[in-house]
Automatic annotation (TrEMBL):
CDD domains from the UniProt entry: NUDIX_MTH1_Nudt1
Organism of provenance: Multifurca ochricompacta
This protein's UniProt keywords: Hydrolase, Magnesium, Metal-binding, Nucleus
Family to which the UniProt record says this protein belongs: Belongs to the Nudix hydrolase family.
Protein name listed in UniProt: Oxidized purine nucleoside triphosphate hydrolase
Principal location listed in the UniProt entry: nucleus
Catalytic activity: N(6)-methyl-dATP + H2O = N(6)-methyl-dAMP + diphosphate + H(+); 2-oxo-dATP + H2O = 2-oxo-dAMP + diphosphate + H(+); 8-oxo-dGTP + H2O = 8-oxo-dGMP + diphosphate + H(+); 8-oxo-dATP + H2O = 8-oxo-dAMP + diphosphate + H(+)
Length: 209
C-alpha cells in the first residue's frame, strides 16, 4: 500500500483496496489546500439514476459534475454542501459524507482542492436550472439494452464520462455502491488546455469491502 501524501491524516489509519497509476511521476508538492464540496443525488430506481449538473461557467465549465463549491469561512463542509446544492439546482437533501479527494494541478491554481464528497438517495423541492448549473439525470448503469421491460422514455443516457473530469470514472462507481473512498489525482494541461492526469490513487477502506 502506498497512500499518496497530502490526504487528511485520519486516512492513514485504515488499510485500503486501491487502484493507481502514473508511478513514474513524483507527486506534485502540496503548498496549501482549499476545502470544496461536491454533492450527488441518486435515484435508487430501477433504473438507478444519478443527477449531474452541466457547469455553465467558471472552473470546470462544460463538464458535468456534482453540485458544489468552496466551503466558506465559518461553515462546515456539510453545511457548505447543502448550501451549494440549493444554490446550484434549487433542492434540499439529506446528504451523507462518502469520500475525500485531493486534486493538485501543475499549472495552478497554487492550492490543492480538497473535496468532500456527499450523496443522497433523494431530494425535496423542485429542480431548477441556475446561472451556474443545468441539472440532468443519467443512468447509473447502461441499462438501455438489458432492462427490456423499461421504455426509452424512462431510461436516461449513461453517465457522460467523456464530458467529465478524468478522475470521475475511478470513484463515481464507488459513490454509486456506497463504498467510502479517498483518493488523489495530480493534473497537468496538454497543449490544447485539456486536463490530463499525471498520477492518481483511489482507495477504499478494506473494512468496507
Ligand atoms: C480536478 O478534478 C476535479 N474533479 C471533480 N470531479 N471535481 C472537481 C475537480 N476539481 C474541482 N472540482 C469541483 C470542486 C467543486 O465542487 C467545483 C468547483 O467549485 P467552484 O469553483 O464552482 O466553486 P464556487 O464556490 O461555486 O465558485 P464561484 O462561487 O466562484 O462560482 O468543482
Amino acid at each position: 500500500m502506498s497512500l499518496p501524501p497530502g490526504l487528511p491524516s485520519e486516512s492513514l489509519h485504515v488499510r485500503y483496496a486501491e487502484t493507481s497509476s502514473g508511478g513514474d511521476h513524483d507527486w506534485l508538492p502540496v503548498i496549501s489546500t482549499k476545502l470544496y464540496t461536491n454533492a450527488f443525488i441518486i435515484s435508487p430506481g430501477p433504473p438507478q439514476k444519478i443527477l449531474l449538473g452541466y457547469k455553465k461557467r467558471g472552473f470546470g465549465a462544460h463538464f458535468y459534475n456534482g453540485f458544489g463549491g468552496k466551503v466558506e469561512a465559518g461553515e462546515s463542509p456539510a453545511q457548505a454542501a447543502a448550501r451549494e446544492l440549493k444554490e446550484e439546482c434549487g433542492v434540499e437533501a439529506s446528504l451523507d459524507h462518502c469520500g475525500t479527494l485531493l486534486f493538485v494541478n501543475k499549472g495552478g491554481p497554487e492550492w490543492a482542492f480538497q473535496i468532500e464528497i456527499y450523496r443522497a438517495d433523494g431530494y425535496s423541492g423542485t429542480l431548477i436550472e441556475t446561472e451556474e448549473m443545468r441539472p440532468e439525470w443519467f443512468s447509473a448503469a447502461d441499462t438501455r439494452f438489458s432492462e427490456t421491460s423499461l421504455t426509452p422514455e424512462v431510461i436516461p443516457p449513461p453517465i457522460p464520462y467523456n464530458s467529465m473530469w478524468p478522475d470521475d470514472i475511478y470513484w463515481i462507481p464507488l459513490l454509486l455502491t456506497k463504498l467510502p473512498f479517498v483518493g488523489r489525482a495530480d493534473f497537468d494541461t496538454d497543449t490544447s488546455g485539456r486536463y490530463e492526469m499525471l498520477r492518481w490513487w483511489f482507495g477504499v477502506p478494506s473494512t468496507s469491502l
